[in-house]
Amino acid sequence: MTTKSKSQKRRTRAFLEGLTGGPLTFGTLLASIRDGEEMSQAAFARKLGVSRSHLCDIEKGRKSVGPGRAARFAKLLGYPQESFVALALQAQVEEAGLRLNVTVEAA
Q: N or C terminus of the chain: which is more exposed, having fewer CB within 10 Å?
């Protein structure tokens, strides 16, 4: 990964956090993508292969997503798996009460 792409990722994350009004989470990422595509929760949930209520729970942070499912969502939506998996793992780390930051890189 080049320095430029790391800088670009930081700017993108800061931009999304500004739009969502808080730290970027897996749920807020999905909600931002859904809003950007101007899709209803029901249509977006169908695209992801989950129920509308489950998607709502993910977006609101009431349900977490494992790294495998996060990678599948990324692939379905055409986004890098690393970003989705990192956010999913970060949520698990935070739920465990650990003050650590997760970074994921392609093998």
A: C
Let me know if residue 10 belongs to a domain: no
- Which of 68, 57, 72 minimizes the C-alpha distance to 25? 57
Write out the residue range of the structural domain in which residue 33 sits. 21-95
pTM score above 0.85: no
> Does the residue 15 lie in any domain?
no
Extract the tokens encoding 101.
């930051």
Report which secondary-structure segment, H or E, holds 38: none
Residue 11 lies in a domain: no
Which pair of structure tokens corresponds to residue 20? 């969502």
> How large is the angle between the packed helices 26-36 and 3-20, nearest 10 degrees?
80
What percent of the chain is predicted at pLDDT more than 70? 85
Please give the backbone phi and psi of residue 21, each rounded to the nearest 5 degrees, phi first.
80, 20
CATH code of 34's domain? 1.10.260.40
Q: What is the DSSP letter of 35?
A: H
Alpha-carbon distance 77 to 62, whole Å?
22
